[in-house]
Amino acid sequence: MKNLTLLFLFITSFTTFSQDNTGSCAARKSAKGWQTKSASLTVAEIAETEKYDVHFYNLDLNMNNISTYLSGSVQIHAKALVDLDSALIELFESLLVSEIKVNGLVVNYNRVSNKIRVPVSANAQENFVIDVAYAGNPPTAQTNPLGGSGLTAGSSPSWGNKVVWSLSEPFSAYEWFAVKQSLTDKADSCAVAITVPDSCKAGSNGILEQVVPLGNGFTRYEWKHRHPIDYYLISVAVAKYVEYNVYANPQGSPSPVLIQNYIYDNPGTLPNFIDEINETANFMELFATQFGPYPFADEKYGHCMAPIGGGMEHQTMTTQGFFEKTLTAHELAHQWWGNHVTCASWCDIWLNEGFASYSEYLMLAALYNGQQANHMTQVHQSVMNQPDGSVWVLDSLNEARIFSGRLTYDKGAGIIHTLRYIIQNDSLFFGALQDFQNTYAHSTATGLDFKNHVANYCNINLDAFFEQWYFGEGFPTYQVQYNQNGSDLFLQISHTASMPNITPTFTNPISLRILRQGQADTIVRFDINNNVELFSLYNFGTVVGTIGIDPSNWVINGNGGVSIDPTLGFSDKPYTQTTKLEVYPNPSNDFISIKGQTEALGYTFYDANGKTVQTGTIDPDGLIDVRTLKSGAYILKCVSANQQQYIRLVTIN
User: What is the rounded CA–CA span in Å between residue 135 and residue 117?
Assistant: First the structure.
């Protein structure tokens, strides 16, 4: 789904179609009210649903594009995990059941409101099939103020087209079909057959296997999806559509991938959006290089238009209100982040929405270079509109909090950017993302699963990062004071936290841009462990101009200003670098040594942009080979076993 804060950036360029192009999935849900829990199940009843495992949903529905009234049946193929005498499923009470069969035999069942207990006599590990025939009107916002978004009928205010479409996230699938609503129980596959008037088309998940004219003014569209799928990602959309197809050639896919688009049958709609639709192929090819092969390449990707103010990432067939590059990229990225790997709990919706939101930045950086910086600035400003809030969702039954644009989407994207900065190696960063996708393919994961996986893959400790940025609240505001003593530069970097009672200290690195006399801007990266840190950069040169804090906007932070403190370097304050080591020779073109060294030191060379270009360890009286470095100025940072640091400017001839 797409967050309203990000959407407003481009709405102004679509003013002709403004009624369809405002809002988002999150904003649209808020207008309908917020459900406090999944249907009406108690904790004990949720536990009851976990006694069986769903394999397959088979929906056979009669629909049109005017009314949400539907009729038909749903088969639930499942396996008992323990000895069962009944299975609990959900179906909204306004949908009337005419018959339920178990393994082909009609059974009596017990129904209380939205809960149906179906008698099932099955031993552990035994398969069974529940077949529910039903009909009726799904709820609306008026008839079910705590939901009403499962199936909607509406008209596009811009184009005039009438559409009926589903949107089940997070708890509304039961509003239009009988279902078990459990994130961790993905069905192995699904089939959706929709019979509609001949003038309409019906879109859904997977491959359109058949279009069957029934000869009575109706046509049946038969879709089949052969990949694991979560309950809320099964979808239908019915309208007078035209089909427009393009193909992508993503890395790792053995053949071109179909991008199948159901666009309003309106003379102006496709010409208006065709260029944006075509870009979907570029986005897929990009994300395949960053996240791994497109997960559903043997089937398709696609879009069904519906009058919503954003998009919903239904598996292989996103429902989208319009086409704009960041929205389209966001929903496509969900096919990896949310569909291929799904959050195991709504507490960890970050795995879906944070990564889809960050994918907008990745797309801009790769395909619209120059636009990504302002995009990330807007993301950070959104987060800092308020001082509090964690990315992790404490109340996983509160939809307003689950889909918070500021926290789940924006802060979620921002901290992924910071994680990339901490890793400081894009090959390693994207390798970790791809390996995570492989490990949890077609399954579910938590935020801690992701943390542990990346920590192991990159061989770094992410405990503090997740404690402060994922579970913690707020953000830091940095202040820098400096003083120059000859060619030596002394710095004090301090920060205050916006929620000091919850997260008082942020220990992520921070970079400064320093302009030196006669030199290009130099970016120096500093490790932060406390709210006040002191650093000395010996023989650094003469500083001119203003020192910039976090110049590349890697960290969500406030800027508390930069000032001169003439006492720095002339006091008894302990500096991070307590020993004035010397690099020799400097400049050099082959090997350098470190005079005054008494223990083994880890070292890192950074180029003028703050990028790591060489790392290693040097023993006392050892040499560092710099022959592979290009000519220019570099920052050399050495770190001792007790984490004392020495930072020095080195010139390579």
Answer: 18
* List of E strands, 123-256: 127-136, 151-155, 162-166, 189-197, 201-203, 207-213, 218-225, 237-239, 241-248
What is the average per-residue pLDDT within 489-494?
94
365-416 confidence digits (pLDDT tens): 999 999 999 999 999 999 999 999 999 999 888 899 999 999 999 999 999 9
Element (H, E) at 97: strand 95-102
Average pLDDT, the chain: 90
Model pLDDT, residue 538: 85
C-beta separation of 301 from 443 below 8 A: no
Whether residue 576 is predicted with pLDDT greater than 70 in this model: the reply is no
Q: Which of 239, 272, 287 is the last residue of a domain?
A: 239
Taking the alpha carbons at both ends of the chain, their separation in whole angstroms is 52
Of 302, 278, 104, which Cα lies nearest the Cα of 206?
Answer: 302
- Do 533 and 599 reside in the same domain of the chain? no
**Number of structural domains in the chain:** 3
Q: Residue 274: helix, strand or coil by DSSP?
A: helix
Q: Which candidate, 251, 178, 212, 197, places its Cα nearest to that of 62?
A: 197
Q: Are 237 and 306 in contact (CB under 8 A)?
A: yes
User: What is the spatial distance between Cα 382 and Cα 5, in angstroms, rounded to a whole number?
Assistant: 7
Put the strands of the sheet holding 548-549 in their side by side order. 522-526, 510-514, 548-549
Strand residues in 389-500 grouped as ranges (E) = 443-445, 476-485, 488-497
Domain final residue, candidates 239, 271, 303: 239
What pLDDT is recorded for position 146? Answer: 63
Rounded to whole angstroms, the Cα distance separating 595 from 500 reads 42
Amino acid of residue 143: T
Residue 449 lies in a domain: no
Give the up-direction half-sphere exposure of residue 119: CA atoms within 13 A in the CB hemisphere.
Answer: 7
- Lowest mean pLDDT of 20-24, 74-78, 513-517, name the range: 20-24
Distance CA 436, CA 73 (A): 37
- Diameter of the chain measured on Cα atoms: 93
Query: Distance (Å, rounded) from C-alpha 151 to C-alpha 159?
Result: 20
Mean pLDDT of 320-349: 98
Question: Where does the pLDDT of residue 300 fall: very low under 50, low under 70, confident under 90, or very high at 90 and above?
Answer: very high
- Pair (168, 231) in one structural domain: yes
- Tabulate helix, strand, coil % of the chain (nearest 5): 25, 35, 40
Number of continuous H segments (helices) and E segments (strands) in the chain: 12, 36
> Cα(603)–Cα(615) distance, rounded to whole angstroms?
6
- What is the C-alpha to C-alpha distance for residues 165 and 266, in angstroms, rounded to an integer? 18
pLDDT at 9: 27
> CB pairs under 8 A, 24+ apart, for 296-299?
296/206, 296/227, 296/335, 296/339, 296/340, 297/250, 297/252, 297/253, 297/254, 297/255, 297/257, 298/226, 299/206, 299/207, 299/225, 299/226, 299/227, 299/258
SS3 582: strand
92 with 156, same domain: the answer is yes
Cis upstream peptide for 170 (omega within 30°): yes
pLDDT at position 570 is 60
- How far apart CA 608 and CA 38 sit, in angstroms, is 53
